[in-house]
Amino acid sequence: MQHKPELSNSNLDFHDLPPFPEDVPKAPLLRINLSKLTEGDEDEIDKLWKACCELGFFYLDLRGIGKRSDSATEHDEDDAQVKVESAAEPEVRVNGDQLLRDADELFGVGKKVFELPFDEKVKYDLKDQGSYFGYKGYGQGVIDAEGTKDRNEFYNVSKDDILGLSESLPAPEVLSPHRDLLKSFIQHSHTVVTMLLGLLNTRLSLPQDKLPSLHKLDSVSGDQVRWVHAPPQPMDDRRTALGQHTDFGSVTILFNRLGGLQVLPPKSEEWCYVKPLRGHAVINLGDAMVKFTAGILRSNTHRVVNPPGEQAEHTRMSLVYFARPADEVLLKVLDGSRLIDEKRQQDPNHGDDEEITSKEWILRRALGRREGGDWAKAGGTETGCT
């Protein structure tokens, strides 16, 4: 079955922003419906599998999961929401509408963070403490081996900090009133991740719950929320804001309103824009999924440039949830799947170049892209994505 990208729907536009131009190359992301996935729709699960194997990026329509009517029965609510068990918060269910509401509020919180004076924000740059949490200033990262500086700032919030799984990290006071909101966003994002991993686990015929068990909400890990803030670039000096890369972990959930994200489709030399869609998140897989599956699942190269067209004059902000394997999980090919075994037989050396934990992998890659870091150690699985 051939699935085509579905983009022609004016209801998906952000009408309070300049329009996304139609004359730029657009990435062929499939649109996948969260509601259909929770209902076990096989055609929708086929689309998910195709997207994860071929491009590693897709849109996830979050609308309509979690709405409650006054006449709904308890049975109806159970049908509308899929419960995801977790030792930390067993009552949290897949709820796309709540996730969208949380994301909307967090865009406002992020704006307040970046409005703080630089001297205040830089207090929370924890790079010198060997941490990728906290603040990274504009131009404090590099986008290539020559040391070209990036053109964005971001702030990372640790899942473990918010859920009380680790000691609290220093943070701006402006974040203090919003810890419950961050907790809700993390929990609802993670339930989506758990559901997606469960569906992929089944398609891979791995032992039951193998992939979800490596990504438990209450496991100590590098999971984080990130705000990214990129002001308009000078008209006569516009270039890449965030260099080409693959993501460090397993599943990324991205919310943005302006263009700028680009992917390099397989066997293509043309960078294509990912058009933001209202009511949707952009989901992509990271390096861990490539390593676990001997390359069956794809972590695709992407980058961020100045927004296209009229959007170029506006500040671009993104909100991201990065889900990563628990710190002590070894990034190696998983046993117990015939599909993975067959793939590994085609390339016996895949994934056997080193033995490294999730925590070591993420630290090496994240800090390698900071100014003064070791660029040679900042690469991911992109060289295997052709």
UniProtKB/TrEMBL annotation:
Stretches assigned to the Fe2OG dioxygenase domain: 221-325
Cross-referenced Gene3D superfamilies: B-lactam Antibiotic, Isopenicillin N Synthase, Chain
Entry GO MF terms: metal ion binding; oxidoreductase activity
Annotated region (Disordered), positions in chain: 69-89
Any Pfam family hit: 2OG-FeII_Oxy
Alphabetical UniProt keywords: Iron, Metal-binding, Oxidoreductase
InterPro entries, A to Z: IPNS-like_FE2OG_OXY, IPNS-like_sf, Iron_ascorbate_oxido_reductase, Oxoglu/Fe-dep_dioxygenase_dom
Keyword Transport attached: no
Family: Belongs to the iron/ascorbate-dependent oxidoreductase family.
Name of protein: Fe2OG dioxygenase domain-containing protein
